[in-house]
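Lecture 7 notes: from sequence to structure.
We start with the chain below.
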Amino acid sequence: MRRSKNCARRRSCTAAAAPLHRRRCTTAAPLTAHPPAACRRLLAYTGRDISRPLLLAIKGRVLDVAEGEDYYGPEGPYKIMAGRDASKAFAMMSLKEEDAHADLSGVPDEHLKILDDWYDKLTKKYPTVGRIHFTPAGGTAKREEPADMWDSF
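Predicted structure tokens for the same chain:
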């Protein structure tokens, strides 16, 4: 049997079983347990290596925040946001390392509004260089763009 190209667990997923299996795969583990490959690559862009841009992501949108190095760079007060999707930290207005991830499960609605405000502010100020597509726990991801835009930088 042919394996599905879209399944994260290709070894056990066949094309015939892909829709049902994919639903199980996406709900089996919380978002933070198996971050997308793009998230792992993003960790290299914290500003410590001057040959790479300083990046952060919010709500899956990867931004080049080099102009905000004083804030997001290795010595900046918001350095935990760099090199990752720190959506929860933005939503909770937290500088704790454990909050610097993309999993928004359990975040109250009023904090999601704060996240939206940060998203609007940062996406107007900094250029977008890529996008990370997450599969939320309990659902399936909508793919509006190619799965990975990392070759754009």
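Points to note: The chain has a mean pLDDT of 74. The radius of gyration is 16 Å.
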